Every structure is written in structure tokens, then in C-alpha cells.
Amino acid sequence: MKTTIFIIRHGKTVWNLEKKMQGSLNSPLTEEGVFQANCLAKRMSNHNIDAIYSSSSPRAIETAEHVFPNRDFAVSDAIAEINMGAWEGKTFSWIDETYPEQWHNFFKDPIHYQPIDGETYLEVNDRVSPFVKNVLENHQGQTIALVSHRITSKLIIQELMNHDFELLGDQEDILSTSLTKIVIEDGIPTLEFRSNIDHYDI
């Protein structure tokens, strides 16, 4: 039995453009973000998707609506972005200057990242892990799409691939409206591609 999971990061937002942290706060898609999502829609139209789940964040829902027009999808807080607390709405440069050690840890050493009034990676993983297990149990042998975020997508991939949590900081980044594909056959996961944006050329 083969189960296929597509993981999609939301399209580029205003705060992505302004290099601000979003987390649990929201910023709308830019024109480029909508274009990216529409390009991905053409690519995904070639696949028979049995179930679609989106983060409850408006930017993820907006992306899902563009990528999967005229399709119903479930919305879940479990795959919302990590809550970044005091960093939300702040620029990358301000955070780097104000919290240099935690800024480094956030991307390179997640297990030692300590948020200011936000979530740790482990806390996010505690909501992502049971969600992923339930999806796999409820959709065995099907093709599923998950529309999520940069950090949460990394944790979803880690969960599906059974990777050690300590290796999370070594993961390749997840680009805006990128597509990651994981196939699980006979209990063995295969990462077919990660953070792919070939559809931008469609």
C-alpha cells in the first residue's frame, strides 16, 4: 500500500517581503504570492488528491483556496506556524541584534531555542506529531495535501521521515509555495523531492 503526502508552504506574504517574522500573526499574500499559488494549482491539477488539510492561518487558507480551487479542505490549528511570541511583527535585523543567540538557535540549533512568550520547537512538535499520525491512519493508500508554514513543514517532514529531532537544524529551508513530496510504501518513507519550485516556470 502506498500513501503519498504533498506538503505545501503558503505563498509569499507582505511580511515575507519586508523580512518580518509572522508566526501566529498573519500577513496577506502579495501579488507574487498569489501568482506562485496559481502556478502550483496548475501543477497540482495533474494529481488526484483525496484529502486536503490547511493550517488555520489566513495566509495558508488563502494559499489553499488558490492551489485547490473549488475543493473543500479541512482546517487545523495543529499545523499552524510556530508561535514566535515577542518576535512576531519584528524585522529579522531587529531580532538578530536584540536576541543574537536565540536567533541563531531558531534556525541552526532548534532544540536549544528558547522563545520569548512563544512556542518551543518541541511544543510545536507535540501538536504536529499526533496530527500526522491521524492523517496517515485515516488516509492509508491515498494522496494527501497539507498546506502549512516554513517551520511547521520542517517538523511535518521530520515526523514523516522518522528523522532525529536533533537534526532539524540541518534541514534545507522551505521556500514560499514550494512543494515537498513524501511517499510511504510498506511503512518505508521516501522523500521524492523537497521545497521544489519548478512550477514557477509553468
UniProtKB/TrEMBL annotation:
<dbReference type="Pfam" id="PF00300">
    <property type="entry name" value="His_Phos_1"/>
</dbReference>
<feature type="binding site">
    <location>
        <position position="59"/>
    </location>
    <ligand>
        <name>substrate</name>
    </ligand>
</feature>
<dbReference type="InterPro" id="IPR029033">
    <property type="entry name" value="His_PPase_superfam"/>
</dbReference>
<protein>
    <submittedName>
        <fullName>Histidine phosphatase family protein</fullName>
    </submittedName>
</protein>
<dbReference type="InterPro" id="IPR013078">
    <property type="entry name" value="His_Pase_superF_clade-1"/>
</dbReference>
<dbReference type="GO" id="GO:0016791">
    <property type="term" value="F:phosphatase activity"/>
</dbReference>
<dbReference type="GO" id="GO:0005737">
    <property type="term" value="C:cytoplasm"/>
</dbReference>
<dbReference type="InterPro" id="IPR050275">
    <property type="entry name" value="PGM_Phosphatase"/>
</dbReference>
<feature type="binding site">
    <location>
        <begin position="9"/>
        <end position="16"/>
    </location>
    <ligand>
        <name>substrate</name>
    </ligand>
</feature>
